[in-house]
Design brief:
This protein has a two-stranded antiparallel sheet. Strands 2-3 form a two-stranded antiparallel sheet. Strands 5-8 form a two-stranded antiparallel ribbon. The chain is built from twelve helices and eight strands. It folds into two domains: 72 residues, no CATH class; 220 residues, Cytochrome P450 (Cytochrome p450, Orthogonal Bundle), CATH 1.10.630.10. A hairpin with a 2-residue loop joins β6 and β7. α7 crosses α9. With 323 residues, the chain is mainly alpha-helical. Bound molecules: protoporphyrin IX containing FE. InterPro entries: Cyt_P450 (IPR001128), Cyt_P450_E_grp-IV (IPR002403), Cyt_P450_sf (IPR036396). Its main location: membrane. It holds the Pfam family p450. Pathway: Mycotoxin biosynthesis.
């Protein structure tokens, strides 16, 4: 009885209220004491070299150990918190506070980046209705497979990439402060504390890299053969402006800076691309969308950021109700 009383009194401080009320856990926590005592006495009788081997075998066979370890083990989650914990520096792991701080920074960046990029892509669907047919056909044919694998929908992939090229959320990227005097390969010199960045918008509208750079060409990044096969769907040559080389939404190079550059290129872009395709795929499969006033200003710029104007309203009409 005494041991039971001590176990009960101790349990809240050791394991917290929830586990202290868990009958299966508490039975095992009590059994653990007795099993450990017997096991320890037995092991003391063995030659020293055998103790770790036999001790390990006994520990694995004791039921109480299994229950306790299963209840106390921190589960491995498939989420962003787990990823942050695993990528925190091994030699000086981050405190819980730092992990929450990192999580909220990523939460902000990812929600802001994705919501703005998707909003602009929806505007582009409204402004360039010639793309709706081929995109909807692609979704009808491939959305189920995309749901299984998270890959595919190459026309939608290109459409989102083109929308983000012409309306990137940020006009400047890869902002860095020089921590010590620093020179670029071309000799440009930075003193300690100087800031520099890449002109994202200017780079992505450079006519050297993008034919008809200021024209929206939703399939310019797709495979030219695939786009050619759509020619029957268009009468006005809408899909003719193509890049020299096909490029996926998640690809980045010196001409496409939406995801940043170099060592800090966005690691969330594969996830972001899938989420954006889910949202736009569902819209294409279920709705017709229309800007209430297509001629009105739909974006505004604040410093280097471009955002959708809250007044730029879109009407979504379920496909079944389209007149
Ligand atoms: C359309 C949506 C997104 C855009 C446009 C975007 C853009 C960017 C850009 C430009 C950078 C580089 C910043 C720099 O070099 O200073 C970056 C970094 C980063 N992004 Fe994204 N991002 C998006 C979505 C996401 C999502 C969904 C996640 C995570 C779930 C994410 C996680 C990160 C992280 C952790 C970094 C920092 C990488 C590092 O420090 O090495 N992003 N993102």
């Amino acid at each position: 009885m005494t041991i039971k009383l001590v176990v009960l009194s101790n349990a809240i401080s050791f394991f917290g209220k929830n586990l202290a009320k868990d009958e299966q856990f508490m039975t095992s926590a009590l059994a653990y004491i007795q099993e450990t005592l017997i096991c320890a006495e037995f092991i003391r009788l063995l030659p020293k070299f055998m103790t770790p081997i036999v001790g390990g075998i006994i520990a694995r066979t004791l039921k109480s150990h299994a229950v306790i370890f299963n209840c106390l083990k921190v589960p491995k989650h498939a989420d962003c918190i787990q990823w942050i914990m695993e990528t925190s520096p091994k030699n000086a792991p981050w405190t819980p506070q730092r992990i929450v701080h990192e999580l909220m920074a990523i939460w902000f960046g990812s929600v802001h980046g994705m919501s703005t990029t998707v909003a602009f892509a929806i505007h582009d669907l409204c402004l360039h209705p010639e793309y709706v047919g081929p995109l909807r056909n692609e979704c009808e044919a491939q959305y189920a497979a995309f749901e299984q694998t998270g890959t595919g929908l190459p026309l939608l992939d290109s459409f989102i990439k083109e929308s983000a090229r012409l309306t990137p959320v940020e006009s400047q990227g890869t902002r860095r402060a020089a921590l010590q005097p620093f020179a670029l390969a071309d000799g440009t010199h930075f003193a300690t504390g100087d800031w520099f960045c890449t002109p994202v918008r200017a780079i992505m509208t450079n006519p050297v890299d993008f034919p008809s750079a200021l024209t929206f060409s939703g399939f310019r990044f797709a495979d030219p053969e695939l786009v050619k096969s759509l020619e029957k769907d268009t009468t006005n040559g809408a899909f003719k402006e193509m890049q020299k080389k096909a490029m996926k939404l998640t690809d980045c190079d010196m001409t496409y800076h939406v995801w940043g550059t170099g060592r800090m290129t966005c690691p969330g872009r594969f996830y972001a691309a899938v989420v954006m395709k889910v949202i736009l795929g569902q819209i294409l499969l279920n709705y017709e969308c229309e800007l209430v006033d297509p001629a009105a200003k739909r974006l505004f710029t604040w410093r280097s950021t471009t955002l959708p104007k809250p007044s730029a309203k879109v009407v979504f009409t379920p496909l079944g109700e389209v007149a």
